[in-house]
Amino acid sequence: MTIEHSLSRRQFLVSSAAVGGLALGFTLPLGAQPAAQTESEVNAWVVIKPDETVVVRIGRVEMGQGTLTGLAQLVAEELDCDWDKVTTEYPTPGQNLARSRVWGNFQTAGSRGIRDSHDYMRKGGATARHMLIQAAANGWQVPATECTVSKGVITHAPSGRTTTYGKVADAAAKLEAPKDVQLKDTKDWMIAGKPVKRLDTAPKINGSQIYSIDFTRPGMLNAAIRACPVFGGKLKGFQATAVERMPGVKKVVQVGDNAVAVVADTWWRAKTALDALPVEWDPGPNAALSSETITAMLNEGLDAQQTFIGNQAGDVKAAIAGAAKKVEAVYGYPYQHHATMEPMNATALWTSDRCEVWTATQNGEAALATAASAADLPVGKCDVYRLHLGGGFGRRATSHDFVRQAVLIAKQMPGTPVKLIWSREEDMLHGWYHPVTQCKLTGALDDQGNLTGLHMRISGQSILSTVNPQGLQNGRDPATFQGLNPSGTEGVFGYSIPNLLIDHAMRNPPIPPGFWRGVNNNQNALYLECFMDELAHAAGQDPLAFRRKLLVQHPKHLAVLNAVAERAGWGSPAPQGVYRGLAQHMGYGSYVAACAEVSVANDGKLKIHRIVAATDCGHAVNPQQIAAQVEGSFVYGLTAMLYGEITIKDGKVEQENFDTYPMMRMDEMPEVETIVMPSGDFWGGVGEPTIFVAAPAVLNAIFAATGKRIRSVPLSKADLRKA
What we know:
Layout: H1 9-15, E1 46-48, E2 54-57, H2 67-79, E3 86-89, H3 93-98, H4 118-140, E4 147-150, E5 153-156, E6 161-164, H5 165-173, H6 201-206, E7 221-227, E8 234-238, E9 249-255, E10 259-264, H7 267-276, E11 279-282, H8 291-301, E12 308-313, H9 316-321, E13 325-333, E14 345-351, E15 354-359, H10 364-375, E16 382-386, H11 395-398, H12 401-411, E17 418-421, H13 424-429, E18 437-445, E19 451-460, H14 464-467, E20 499-506, H15 521-538, H16 543-550, H17 555-568, E21 579-587, E22 590-600, E23 606-616, H18 623-642, E24 648-649, E25 652-653, E26 671-676, H19 691-706
Parallel strand pairs: 2-3, 7-17, 15-16, 19-20, 23-26
Antiparallel strand pairs: 1-2, 4-5, 5-6, 7-10, 8-11, 9-10, 12-20, 13-18, 14-15, 14-17, 18-19, 21-22, 22-23, 24-25
C-alpha cells in the first residue's frame, strides 16, 4: 500500500503499530517528483553537493551492524561514484510521510536492513546515474549513449570532454526520472560485494559520533524516571515536597498511571532527587508472580490437548507408537534481557502545536506514532529525529515506551527540551524480554536407526499476542515457529522426516515479551539441534552423518553444515581434551551452521576454544561486515547461553544491573572462523542468523566432552563435571 500524506492520525497510528520483526507494505514511487527538492537532490536517495560529496539518504538505522555502509555501497555501486566521497543521512519519518513514504519502511529489525532494501536502493542509485549522465549529455548536446562514468566523472568518449556529478547535479535534479533502469549484474560489482571501509568507523574512534544519549539542545533539562517495579502495578502517590528544594531540581511530575519523574538541570541531580523521593506503589494483581509459578504454567502446557500447529506431516502418533526406540527430552529457555549498552532515552520538545523528539529507534515511524499519540497532536505536527543507537537488538523496535514517557514529561514543561534517560536499574526492570518457553521433544527411531517421527511441543509465551495481536492468525502466533516452518524465508525446517508435528501450547505470563536478537529461532535451534544430537547418539550414529541423511533434500542447509565440518576437521582427531559439536539452522533468509570446539576441566570449568561458522546469505554486500556480525552474534549468543537469565520474584525482575546480569568477558571469547559462502540467488540477513547456532553447537560439544546433556540455560547454573 502507499500511505499518502493526507492519511488520518488514527490510520497512521494503526499502520505503525506492527513493529519488531513485522514489515509494513509500501509502494515506492521511484519516478515520482518529490514534494520539495533541494537543488542538489537528484532523487530521494541521492544528494550531490558542489564539492562532489555524495549523500545517500537511508530509511534504516545504524546500531553497529553496518547497515548504513552496506546500503550506501549498493547505491554507490549503481551510481558509479567515488566511494571516498560518500556519506549518509537519515530522513525523518515526518519527511517520509509527507513524501508518500518514498523511503519506504523505516524499520531496522529482523535482519531486514539490506535484504528488504537492496532493490529500491540500487534502483535509486541507478536512476540517479541515468539522470546525471543525461544532464551532462544535454549540456554537451550529445546522445547520452556516448557518455560513460567512473567515480563520479562523466566522459563523452568521442570528444574526450569530461565533467563531474557535482557540476551537473542541479540540472539532473530538474529532469524526469526514467521509468525503468537496468541494474548491474552482481558479478560486475566494484564497490558492493567488497570489504570497503565502514562509514561509521572514524567518528566512533575519534569520539565525534553522537548517540541519542549524547544529544543536547540549548536550555535543555534532564529527567530521571521510576516506574512501578511490579509488572502491571500503578503509582499510588509521592511526596514531591521532600525533594523540590534539592539542588537543580525544577519539577517532580507524574508520568502516566505508573511512573514518577524528577526534572533537573543535570541528570545526576534528577536521579539523586528521585532516589530520595518518597513513593508509594500499588503492586496490583501480579504481586505474587514468580519464576516458579511461571514454570508451573509452562509445565502444564507440555501435555495440553489444545495447541496451535506450525508444521505437520504424516502420522506422528502412529510413528512414535510403532518405534523400535523412542527418545524423549524436555528443554527450557528463560527470559532474557536486551541489555543494550545505551539505556533507553529520548529528548522531547513540546508546545501546543508542535512536538519534536530526538532518539535512538529501530522504527522511526512507530516512534513518530508514539510521539503523536502522547503529544495529543496530529502526526503532521510531530517529527522524530533519528540518532545512532548504542545497541538495539530488538528492544528499540518492540516498544517506544521511553518516547512516550519523554513526551509526557515534556508536555508538563512546555517549550523546554527535556532529555529522559533511564537508569540501568530502570532499564533492567522494565524491558520487553526474550520470551520464556519449554519444549518437549519425542523422536521415533526404527530398527535401522532411521528417524521416522518427531514431535516438538513448545509451551510458552507468544510475542505477537502482546506486541501485535493483529498479527495472530486465528489465535496462532506464526513467529513462535521461526526456523521450524515447512517453507518461507523466515526459517525453514531443513530435515526430511516422514512423520512430523510441531505445535505450540500458548501460555502468556504477565511479563512483556519482545523481539530479542534472533527472536524465537534462538530457542528453536537449541531445542532441535541438541535433540538431533541426542537422536544421533541414541541411534549409534555420528551426529554429522545422521544429519546428512536427513538433509539430502535441503542442499543449502547441507552445504553450510558440510562447510563447517570440513573446516573444523570433523572426523579427524581434535587436540587433546578438546571436543566438537555441530548445529545448523535457517532463518531471516539465510542458512547458517557452526562447529564448536570446547574443553571441560575436571572441576567443570568450560573453555570454548573455537567456533567455525558458515553463512549463506545469498549475496554478500560487504564480506568484512558479515564476518564482524558473525563474531558479534556469537558474543551475544554465548553470553545468553552462559549467563542470560531474568528471574521473577514478587512480581518484579530480580536482576537490576550487570553485577547480577553479567556479560561475557573477553577472555571467555573463542576464536571465530567465518565462512561466507553466498550462493547468489537470494538475499538473506546476517545480523541475527548465526546467533541461533552458537549455543546448540557448544552444548553438543559439552556432551561430547562430559557425557552430560544440558537441556536448559544459562550454563552458570549447570554442573559441567563429567558424568
